[in-house]
Design goal:
Elements lengths: L6 E5 L4 H12 L3 E6 L2 H9 L10 E4 L5 H15 L4 E4 L14 H27 L5 E5 L12 H20 L6 E6 L7 H4 L17 H13 L4 E3 L2 H12 L1 H11 L10
Helix pairs in contact: 1-7, 3-4, 4-5, 8-9
This protein binds NADP nicotinamide-adenine-dinucleotide phosphate.
């Protein structure tokens, strides 16, 4: 029996969560556009995908920090796919640095990748999503988008902006019948920590208890099938977020202790 045509665009599909998501979607019968900058990694993921009866998967090499390249990439997707049922804004970049060490160019790159690109991509993809059947957008933010943490303030703030963007967009696009979901993964074992700028070599987290990228990919697929406004993959972080609203000093203290440090509110 023929499977209905379902088309997905996954950004950051050359590694980690994006590659796992592209594979999971192809397994589920989606025709997939894989987008990232690294051509050879993208090709390897592309070649590993299950074939689709409606046509070939597509890989698009694109730096999402370049708005003109982003527009050209979407024009190509439009020409070759004609519409989209799913957009997964997954491409992202970490930045591990104390505020006093922040480099303006890296700060800008973090926000261009994690915030501006999803904004511009959603804007450019709207005509394609309008032509899709029951379209869904999944924005991959992070549990730290709902609770800022020391040593990663720039990254957490960029993901917080993405969470806020998703909330507003969800209501704007309800009239378009496009579902918008935020997925907040917690620690996931990918190459993310090797790639992120870390000028002072602050210690990376211990990945031994981390989720695998396939677990996050499975959540993306669940959201594509049954959209929910927001899903956080570790309930502990959700509790910390809620605590931070009502008892921020207690939340700060608990977080500092968990990260292996102490904290006391400045006495005034
Ligand atoms: N790993 C975690 O613990 C964790 C936790 C919570 C949330 N997340 C989020 O999950 C998402 C995926 O991260 P990951 O863990 O899978 O890390 P990853 O393996 O480093 O993947 C990041 C992806 O983003 C792409 N990318 C980065 N900058 C880009 C740009 N300017 N243009 C196009 N593509 C770009 C990279 O591809 P190219 O280098 O080939 O361009 C790569 O495919 C990110 O948004 C991250 O913030 C990760």
């Amino acid at each position: 029996m023929s499977v209905p045509l379902r088309r997905a665009l996954v950004t950051g599909a050359s590694s980690g969560i994006g590659a796992a998501t592209a594979r999971a979607l192809a397994e589920a019968g989606y025709r997939v556009v894989l987008l990232a900058r690294r051509e050879s990694e993208l090709r390897a993921v592309h070649e590993s995908l299950r074939e689709n009866e409606h046509g070939e998967h597509l890989r698009v090499v694109c730096d999402l920090c370049d708005p003109a390249a982003l527009e050209a990439a979407l024009a190509r997707v439009d020409a070759e796919f004609g519409g989209l049922e799913l957009l997964v804004n997954n491409a992202g970049l970490g930045y591990r640095a104390k505020v006093e060490e922040l480099d303006p160019a890296l700060l800008e790159r973090t926000f261009r990748t994690n915030v501006l690109a999803p904004f511009l991509l959603c804007k450019a993809a709207l005509p394609l999503l309008r032509r899709g059947s029951e379209p869904v957008v999944v924005n991959i933010a992070s549990v730290v988008g709902r609770r800022g943490i020391p040593g990663q303030t720039a990254y957490a703030a960029s993901k917080s902006a993405l969470c806020s963007f998703s909330e507003g967009l969800r209501i704007e696009w309800a009239t378009e019948d496009i579902a918008v979901c935020t997925l907040n993964p917690a620690l996931t074992a990918t190459g993310f920590f090797e790639v992120q700028p870390n000028p002072s070599r602050l210690p990376d987290p211990d990945l031994s208890g981390a989720a695998g990228p396939d677990e996050v990919a499975a959540e993306v697929l669940r959201l594509a099938r049954h959209p929910r406004p927001e899903h956080s993959m570790r309930k502990k972080w959700l509790a910390l977020t809620a605590l931070g609203l009502f008892a921020p000093r207690l939340a700060d203290r608990l977080l500092a202790r968990r990260l292996g440090g102490g904290w006391r509110a400045p006495k005034r």
